[in-house]
Sequence to fold (269 residues):
Amino acid sequence: MADSKNDNTLTSTEYWQEDFWKIGEAEIPNLEIDIHDLEYRELHQFLKQHLPSQNNLRVLELGCHPGRFLWYFHTHFGYQVEGVEYVGPACQLTQKALESHQIPTKIHHADFLKFESPDEPFDIVFSAGLVEHFVDVSPAIRGHTELTKPGGLVVIVIPNHAGLNGAILKHIDRKVYDAHNHMSYRDLKRVCDQDPELEFVTGGYLSRFNLSPSNFFQHKLEKWPLWFYKVVFKLYSLSMRAARILPNTRCLSPNTILIARRKENAHPS
Ligand SMILES: C[S@@+](CC[C@H](N)C(=O)[O-])C[C@H]1O[C@@H](n2cnc3c(N)ncnc32)[C@H](O)[C@@H]1O
Fold:
């Protein structure tokens, strides 16, 4: 498949394959998400509250490598899962990783903006960490809508780079920072509200203060003496505990989520 870098994308297949996933060195990835882990706990609670509980709904994840969310939706919701991924080797590894868990799936090798499902539109179209890699996010959101059946849900999760995590990332890793559109929850909602076939369901900032989206500690592990790293990490852990009493906000929260419904009277594409 040809590289999909164009004026509206902030990344390319090379970026994902070589810089981000370093796929040449990849083994079959571990997919198991710990729903009690700080990184996933609030996301899991939010999704359990707002997504349908019927087994066997069909969910499609766009930009799905390594497949952890497909594993998650199959394991915790009983959904049938499929994915779209435009990096060829990542696509194959995701297929293998899910098969190694005996999860039946089809991972489509395609640019999601050009992907046409051979089957019916999906009950839920999900992405995490995808739409913020576009300058103008509208076509990316439209891509989700078109793959969703009327009455189905679009679920979009992005790292929150509009607050502290973005400011830190800008200083420690300019290349990764520049690969993102640093939109706020309000910006994301505005774009969804402009899609005439979507109606807003719910959304907001998600999770208490933590620095995982800026990879701050992975970055500093290589740069700081180990004893100093441990001291700062201890202080960070304490501040995260203290932050449990604070509300989720643009400044501190690591993630943003939005759920919208494709209107019942929409015409499937
Ligand atoms: C930040 S990663 C997120 C991976 C996954 N959603 C997760 O959270 O575990 C973004 C993924 O989207 C893929 N991607 C980016 N643009 C894409 C496109 N236009 N079509 C299909 N996949 C794309 C990348 O190759 C990469 O694997």
In short: Residues 226-242 form the longest helix (17 residues).
